[in-house]
């Protein structure tokens, strides 16, 4: 019975939340074409280590070409 009561409470809360969408969404800042937001982001740390790969095989390469590259590669 307790699970059913919790289910009903969740359904009522969802109905109330969806009935007033203007109250749930915080006001967004106006879009700035000048890029003022980006100027403040220059002091951010790098996202992660640089990529270890210098070349990629295109998705349209034939299987023969890919297998030839694998066979010639040194590991």
UniProtKB/TrEMBL annotation:
Residues 15-47 have a biased composition (Basic and acidic residues). Residues 15-55 are annotated as: Disordered. This is Uncharacterized protein. It comes from Trifolium medium.
């Amino acid at each position: 019975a307790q699970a059913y009561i919790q289910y009903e409470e969740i359904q009522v809360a969802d109905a109330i939340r969806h009935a007033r969408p203007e109250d749930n969404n915080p006001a967004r800042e106006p879009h700035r074409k000048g890029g003022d937001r980006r100027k403040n982001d220059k002091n951010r740390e790098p996202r992660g280590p640089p990529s270890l790969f210098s070349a990629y095989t295109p998705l349209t390469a034939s299987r023969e070409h890919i297998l030839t590259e694998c066979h010639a590669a040194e590991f």
